[in-house]
């Protein structure tokens, strides 16, 4: 793992990825954030040594380095998922590379279904805590203690200071922002009615197929982390309709300007 991290990091440094401060992972339907970056360098995933390749058709596959509000950022345009056949170590490998390049803060976005029926599609949810239902851990491999603390504390996985700033920014800009618990499942199938009922019982407000592995590794590496979900559908087990992926992407696109506003203003304050 250390050899792979070193090879990937050196490749990107040679491409001009020079000491980014903030890492950003963009989820489904959130690609327009790239337009806010003054791009200095970029690299396709399939050109970076040891990097996985995004296989989901609506996920791009580029690592982008540039500036926003004078701050150096590195952005994943497209992420990896366990449901694509990757291991949790593969999924989180880019976080390790971003940390090695120099980031101190990781911001994550995703598309999620609203389990809390007080939350509506097209709205945003700030993740306050999470439930890992992916069946394993990205830290469950031999030699993990060479990269960080094996028994990583997860009492506050999402940075309180950053989350407070996000809530203030949303309020100042008139953006409706819920706060809640995100449950991460494997997918790629959507949940059954019984599964949505279970998720509600165990305390989830939203459900998705990403983010938690990256947040675990961010904490393992001592990074400050924060994440926001775009709520793309409402998961009412008593009135469940067949999933429409196109509608999910449209809802993500509808909420994207709010997400961009929050991230841009936050980067100014970090």
TrEMBL record:
Q: Does the keyword Glycosyltransferase apply?
A: yes
Q: Residue span of the signal peptide, if any?
A: none
Sorted UniProt keywords: Glycosyltransferase, Transferase
> Which residue windows are transmembrane per the record?
none
Molecular-function GO terms, alphabetical: purine-nucleoside phosphorylase activity
UniProt key word Transferase? yes
The protein's annotated pathway: Purine metabolism; purine nucleoside salvage
EC number assigned by the record = 2.4.2.1
Nucleoside phosphorylase domain segment(s): 21-268
User: Which class of enzymes does this protein belong to?
Assistant: transferase
Its function, per the record, reads: The purine nucleoside phosphorylases catalyze the phosphorolytic breakdown of the N-glycosidic bond in the beta-(deoxy)ribonucleoside molecules, with the formation of the corresponding free purine bases and pentose-1-phosphate.
Q: Which NCBIfam families match?
A: PNPH, PNPH-PUNA-XAPA, PRK08202.1
Q: Could you say which protein family the record assigns here?
A: Belongs to the PNP/MTAP phosphorylase family.
Name used for this protein in its record = Purine nucleoside phosphorylase
